[in-house]
Structure formats: structure tokens, C-alpha cells
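Here's what a typical entry looks like (DUF4399 domain-containing protein):
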Amino acid sequence: MQRRTMLIACVVAGVAPRVAFAGPTPSPPGAQVYIIWPYDGARIKGAFWLRMGLTNMGVCPKGVDRPATGHHHVLIDADLPPMDQAIPSDRNHLHFGAGETEARIELPPGKHTLQLLMGDYNHVPHNPPVYSKKITITVE
């Protein structure tokens, strides 16, 4: 009942809660995911290497159910997806299910946003979700 009251209070106040519902896999305390490179505001020429960082949590391939682990998903020009469902897989939601911590990315010229979101062995965000700050880059 308390969660419902909080949700209603947020909606009435015009503030959307970021973590109303999350997947069943717990995230470890203090887990943080972040973009090592590029930095917020970077101007990039052509393709680039996205470097992903993670603390207080391990990286494991999709399909491997181990406590305190997950794999990276990169959101490109997209908002956070529903936290109680599998993360979509399309050109705006890239999955790194082999456990990659860096990836070569090619985007068309212009401004783009990037954000990381950890997913469990089934691509569902953890509870609570582990996601990075959204950054903006310009591809020239």
C-alpha cells in the first residue's frame, strides 16, 4: 500500500518515479555502472570505442544466473525502458550479452545520448535498477 501511495503522490506532483517496479533479480548494494569514455559533451569524428565501467557488481554473459552479476545494455537516443520487462533489442537498445565491457559504436552525424543499463541473465533490469547518468555526445 505504501508503494501505491508513493506512486500516486509522484503522479499528482508531476514527478515520474524512476523505479516504480523492477525485475526480480536483486542488485548488490552500492552497484554502479558508468561510461568511462566518451565523456559527456565529447565531440567525436566517426566510429568510437564505448568503454563501460562497473563497480560492486560482476559482469556475466546472458543466460548465466549468478548472484550480483549482469551484463551491459547501451541505450542510444532513448529513455529508460520499463524496469519490470526485458530490455528491448533494437538500434536504440544494444545488448552486450557476451559480457563485453567495450564496444565499437558508429552513429550518424549529430547529437546523441548514451546511457548504460545493467540487465540480468534474462535482460531484465535488476532490483533496484543499475543505470548510468545519461550523457550527450556530438558525432561530426
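The chain has a mean pLDDT of 88.

More examples are in the samples folder.
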